Amino acid sequence: MCVLGESRLEGYHGLAYRKLVEAGVNVGDTVEVSFGDESFVGRLMPRVESDDDSVVTIKLPNGYNIGLSVVDASVRLVSPAGGLHQQPPVEEAVGFGAGEYVALISTGGTIASRVEYETGAVRPALRASDLMSLVPELEGISRLKTQVLMSILSEDMKPAYWERIARAVYSELEAGAAGVVVAHGTDTMGYTAAALSFALRGVDRPIVLVGSQRSSDRPSSDAYTNLLCAVKFAKESFRPGVYVCMHASTSDPTCAVIPGVKVRKMHTSRRDAFKAVNTRPVAFVDRDKLVFLDESSKGYVVGGGVVFKPGFSDKAALIEYYPGFSLDILNWLAEKGYLGVVLAGTGLGHVSSELVDGIARLRRSGFLIYMTSQCLYGRVNMNVYTTGRRLLAAGVVPLGDMLPETAYVKLSWALANYPLEEVDGVMRSNLVGELSARSVYSGEWT
After folding, report:
1. What is the mean pLDDT of the chain?
2. pLDDT tens digits, residue range 390-416?
3. What is the CATH number of the domain that holds 95?
4. Which domain holds residue 394?
5. Cβ neighbours of residue 117 under 8 Å, at least 6 residues apart?
6. Is 11 helix (H, G, I), strand (E, B) or coil?
7. Residue 229 has what pLDDT?
8. Which of 104, 247, 300, 358 makes a 20 to 30 Å CA pair with 189?
């Protein structure tokens, strides 16, 4: 293994390590690997737990990673990584003026993970600086201050962690960051984006959540582009609010920036899995440009007031209605001390008519019930059909075009920050763009 004082060749050993050292190459440098008349040029990437000591991994200019055996190849240094590997990868924001740096907070997920080549499994990375080493171009966009807040898998996220993230983001904004980027697992990133939107209402700078569908060691990883675009938007957009920044299409160059209360992961593995629902992205961004689709609210004044309410309750629930759904489920929640539930009903906001009387009894007992639609696109309208009108009379509160996940997060937040008798009013109010007066058709999955 390499010694830190001699070279920085994370994960390399044996033949590959010797050839890289002989060529004077470090991770992050641009190298040429040649096989006679054929050659490949790209940035040298770290390797993790590989049994084959003859393989080097480089990132091609198109963003794809490839592994190349150097048994019969020559390795040449094309250009160093601008001295990036010659200094500690974590740069503390000592002496930075307000607005001079972007804070990068790592919470885990695929974007903060490595591949164990022995097993093919993905494990969380332990350092936010690992992310920085992937994208030396970040140095040309902004100075960075990084921290690891937690290293968890996306499915392990919970309301108590939303408060921790909100407090960390608020601390960085108070310290003078131009914007904050939160590296997060994709499976629950939409929930956390909504949580930060409510906890940091009135924020005057960009907060950008970013993840990747494929880890940085994999071919066709989206980590490189997503992270670059997220930092660029955080530093250069001057757009207040909370957003998710992910691939806009299956090709590599461009990311879409989507409001944190209107975003959903719509595919298990595609790089363009995240879509704006009932709205449009606010911008598209790549390494060269930033294009706004809507110029309203662009710009901010540093020092503006934030309504900081970081608490979240674990006594809220989200349940999708299905044929055969039993009232016993709602009764059980009430008996276990839950204070309210968001239902993802069918169509315009319906559940079985057999449930209406039981729902009315629960509402009279003080149990809160809200209605969204599992259709996602469009909005709840419970005045059209008899069942909907009966549910309204029973006390169910319709939530317009709010996403079920956003509604659940909002309920968790409202229960922690307002008296119970005020929660219905909070849920009906449009606080951060979660409710639209008019739903915008944002396209369908293709």
Report:
1. 85
2. 999 999 999 999 999 999 999 999 999
3. 3.40.50.1170
4. 316-428
5. 47, 48, 49, 50, 51, 217
6. coil
7. 92
8. 300
